[in-house]
UniProtKB/TrEMBL annotation:
GO terms for molecular function: oxidoreductase activity. Residues 23-209 form the Nitroreductase domain. Belongs to the nitroreductase family. It holds the Pfam family Nitroreductase. Keywords: Oxidoreductase. InterPro entries: Nitroreductase, Nitroreductase-like. SUPFAM superfamilies: FMN-dependent nitroreductase-like. This is Nitroreductase. Transmembrane segments: none annotated.
């Protein structure tokens, strides 16, 4: 059992606000490996996330070596062949409201703009999208799953742990990118990782040290103004 943090330890942890301000998705990584102990530290901190009834839903599977190569090769083949699977869970509302569509387009422009990929360059965009399936060549590749019986509340809990992992990594000089693209091929991922059919594939995550010279890491996203999502009701 991972014991509660003691008050003296709490005061030595980097303030979360700093990590939250500095964190951004990183899609280009240095080859420097991440020590197992450091990764385990990050995961244990992430799992301090709150959850309903402290159920702590979800699993993080680190995919390494030949298994990782096999997974990425098969995912890339499936993607390049235009194969489609039924996804385990829905993500985007359909239709996407125009206000959200604008945010999506702005995020895509930030990414492809940093790479110098023009709007009409389908091959360039496809190549970058394909890199999702290689975990952006990060030293640590994670697949994140949840027991299929969980409803939206469980995803909410797991999302907090995922963000906790991002912040824990950030505060230790590491960088991350969540990879929702993995959820396009849940069956393939379960097969290669030999996961039971009761595991829903939520997303992947790339984790490692940032390649600070990689143009892709120049992509910066904005956020909606406070009044777009916060209202005080008297
Ligand atoms: C659950 C989740 C899934 C994501 N999936 C992908 C993905 O498949 N590929 C990708 O390049 N970025 C992915 N992202 C990164 C988002 O595009 C990014 O978080 C967003 O544009 C805001 O930018 P920032 O993280 O740099 O602040 C994902 C983020 C989240 C939280």
């Amino acid at each position: 059992m991972n014991k509660p943090l003691s008050p003296s330890l709490i005061s030595t942890v980097t303030p979360a606000a700093n990590s939250a301000q500095l964190r951004r998705s990183v899609r280009g990584f240095a080859s420097q490996p991440v020590a197992d102990a450091l990764l385990h530290d990050c995961l244990q901190e992430a799992r301090r996330a709150p959850s309903g009834a402290n159920l702590q839903p979800g699993y993080f599977w680190q995919v390494c070596g030949a298994r990782r190569e096999q997974l990425s090769t098969q995912l890339q083949h499936a993607y390049e062949a235009g194969e489609q699977e039924a996804e385990d869970y829905g993500y985007f509302p359909s239709p996407l409201p125009m206000s959200m569509r604008k945010r999506q387009v702005a995020a895509a422009q930030a990414l492809y703009g940093a790479l110098g990929v023009e709007r009409g360059d389908a091959a360039g965009r496809g190549a970058q999208f394909g890199r999702n399936f290689r975990f952006f060549d990060a030293p640590v590749a994670l697949i994140i799953t949840i027991d299929s019986g969980f409803g939206p509340g469980g995803y909410m809990d797991l999302g907090m742990a995922i963000y906790g992992l991002m912040l824990a990594a950030q505060s230790r000089g590491l960088a991350t990118c969540a990879i929702g693209a993995m959820a396009s091929y849940p069956g393939l991922i379960r097969d290669v990782l030999a996961l039971p059919s009761t595991q829903t594939v939520v997303c992947g995550m790339a984790l490692g040290y940032e390649d600070v010279g990689a143009p892709v890491n120049q992509a910066l996203t904005a956020r909606a103004e406070l009044d777009a999502y916060f209202k005080r009701l008297d």
